[in-house]
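Q: what sequence does this backbone want?
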């Protein structure tokens, strides 16, 4: 039997016995019993009284002293009592949201027997389990609250939304405007004729009513404005709903330029943020589930692909060179010793494959998982430009912590200034019903998608439900870099008036003397599409043909997507795209200002010109 430490007192959990409330009697000399009795009292409040048997055993002569010493006793106001696991679950049933344990005990076959065995084993090793409790939950553990966590999450998520809307807004005219690469008006016309009314369900977006350039800009900048309102906590629920609807419109209206995982990742997280604003705990758990799926499936797609570079841990030997838009620090990472890169690959798998399971574990294990994921995402962010993607993933680590943890980290003066309202109060019954139904739907559809990723064949009904929900993108599948690219091929576009001259993009490699640039949290979508185009046959990329045509026309909105247009005064007569293999320059060349070496592979896109010229 473990003695209670000197700074603990059994009186700390005493509550006056009224006879009208149930009483939980525990061993006052047992530190483990005291630890959890104190925690349960904070959960149940005034609904249950707590007393050590050393004080009250004499009042209950019908209960043998050995029973008090063996297990906790739950004594109802009428005198009926139960012990051990059943007593624990009866006590917890008085705490909001904990009644399911008692329901499982009474209704699920085998659960009661297993619970009593687990209780007996724990009671026989109370000293060890007390130390384990201190390790996993910490001294003075109290029921966690998430008012501060929720408040900060929603405010910071507004900044993520702001980055996404502004980033697309400054490119929208060149990408999907009336004179852009893929005009959204053309999409609306084609879809209207082919899909009819079904288009409203298959592609929900506001552009069905207006697809003008003004409407595109209105959506982008309205989204930016609503994001700032969310940051300042003004009409947060309305803002979250409108932000989700507007970004869903951009997802469909953006066509080939909005096919990235971070766009669906943002939509799903944005929908869960809306849930969080109505019901704190369901929102916290759904956000944790999203983070688990994202991290775990990021590892699994690499392993399921069978790519030997992941299996032999050599992938990072290529990644820092071949990733779409490296940062200046990627050059240094690529030149690390092979053993360091092998270790880093293994560490990445540990974070993505093992730590996600700790997300659902005890408090300190969640903290460990959160810190590990934050470290990995920080390393990715400083070596690769992935817009707001890593920032959003890091923000999703916030629900792994609780208010007590944040209060130890943040300045107390700052916390006092934040207009935080208690959010752990029970929402209205109608809200609980709707949120519960949404939670079941989201978890169900995500499990269906994970099953399909693992090569399973879910029941037809499950697949139908998933397809019905799919257009809303409140659930999506994830997993990046399933197959590692081992060499970097770049497309260099050249125009010819009198001689061939190169166009320069803002961020993708081109000029060998230009350093890689930072663009976080901006998402230069044309630069990214050019990276994917280098892996494809241009004949399969209609957007690339449209892009070439706009360059031949010297279209200003498209030229604005480029850093350098060598034909400002007069459009080129001819255009071609050559294919180069890029590698990082060596240390000596870099010291002279040369960052890249490149070798011509051939022609990627043939020489073309406008008809009639």
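A:
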């Amino acid at each position: 039997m473990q003695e209670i430490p000197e700074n603990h007192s059994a009186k700390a959990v005493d509550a006056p016995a009224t006879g009208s409330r149930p009483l939980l009697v525990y061993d006052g000399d047992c530190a483990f019993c005291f630890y959890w009795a104190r925690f349960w009292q904070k959960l149940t409040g005034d609904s249950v009284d707590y007393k050590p048997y050393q004080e009250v055993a004499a009042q209950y002569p019908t209960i043998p002293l050995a029973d008090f010493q063996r297990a906790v006793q739950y004594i109802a106001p009428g005198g009926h009592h139960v012990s051990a696991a059943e007593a624990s679950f009866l006590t917890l049933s008085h705490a909001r949201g904990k009644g399911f344990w008692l329901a499982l005990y009474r209704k699920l076959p085998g659960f009661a027997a297993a619970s009593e065995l687990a209780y007996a084993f724990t009671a026989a090793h109370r000293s060890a389990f007390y130390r384990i409790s201190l390790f996993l939950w910490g001294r003075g553990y109290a029921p966690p609250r998430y008012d501060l966590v929720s408040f900060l999450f929603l405010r910071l998520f507004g900044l993520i939304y702001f980055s996404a809307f502004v980033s697309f807004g400054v490119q929208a005219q060149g990408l999907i405007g009336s004179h852009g690469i893929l005009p959204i008006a053309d999409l609306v016309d084609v879809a209207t004729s082919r899909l009819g009314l079904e288009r409203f369900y298959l592609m929900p977006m506001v552009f069905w009513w207006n697809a003008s350039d003004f409407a595109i800009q209105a959506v982008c900048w309205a989204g930016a404005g609503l994001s700032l309102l969310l940051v300042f906590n003004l009409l947060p629920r309305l803002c979250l709903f409108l932000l989700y609807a507007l970004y869903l419109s951009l997802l469909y209206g953006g066509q080939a330029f909005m096919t990235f995982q971070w766009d669906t990742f943002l939509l799903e997280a944005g929908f869960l943020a809306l849930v969080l604003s109505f019901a704190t705990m369901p929102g916290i758990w759904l956000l944790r589930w999203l983070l688990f799926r994202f991290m775990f499936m990021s590892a699994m797609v690499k392993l399921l692909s069978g790519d030997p570079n992941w299996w032999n841990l050599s992938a990072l030997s290529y990644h820092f060179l071949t990733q779409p838009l490296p940062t200046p620090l990627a050059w240094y990472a690529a030149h690390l010793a092979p053993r360091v890169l092998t270790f880093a690959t293994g560490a990445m798998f540990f974070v993505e494959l093992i730590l996600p399971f700790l997300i659902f574990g005890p408090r300190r294990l969640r903290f460990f998982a959160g810190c590990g994921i934050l470290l990995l995402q920080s390393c990715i962010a400083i070596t690769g430009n992935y817009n707001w993607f890593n920032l959003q993933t890091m923000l999703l680590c916030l629900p792994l912590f609780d208010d007590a943890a944040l209060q130890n980290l943040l300045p107390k003066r700052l916390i006092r200034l934040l207009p935080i309202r208690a959010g752990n109060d029970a929402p209205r019954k109608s809200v609980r019903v709707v949120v519960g139904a949404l939670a079941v739907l989201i978890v169900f559809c995500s499990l269906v998608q994970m099953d399909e990723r693992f090569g399973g064949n879910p029941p037809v009904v499950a697949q139908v439900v998933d397809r019905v929900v799919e257009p809303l993108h409140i659930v999506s599948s994830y997993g990046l870099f399933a197959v590692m690219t081992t060499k970097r091929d770049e497309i260099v576009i050249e125009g010819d008036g009198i001689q061939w001259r190169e166009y320069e993009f803002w961020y993708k490699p081109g000029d060998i003397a230009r350093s890689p640039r930072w663009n976080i949290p901006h998402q230069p979508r044309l630069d990214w599409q050019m990276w994917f185009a280098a892996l494809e046959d241009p004949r399969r990329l209609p957007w690339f043909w449209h892009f070439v045509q706009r360059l031949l026309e010297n279209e200003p909105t498209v030229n604005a997507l480029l850093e350098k247009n060598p034909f400002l005064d007069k459009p080129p007569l001819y255009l071609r795209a050559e294919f180069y293999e890029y590698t990082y320059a060596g240390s000596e060349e870099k010291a002279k200002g040369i960052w890249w070496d490149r070798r011509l592979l051939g022609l990627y896109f043939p020489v073309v010109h406008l008809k009639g010229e």
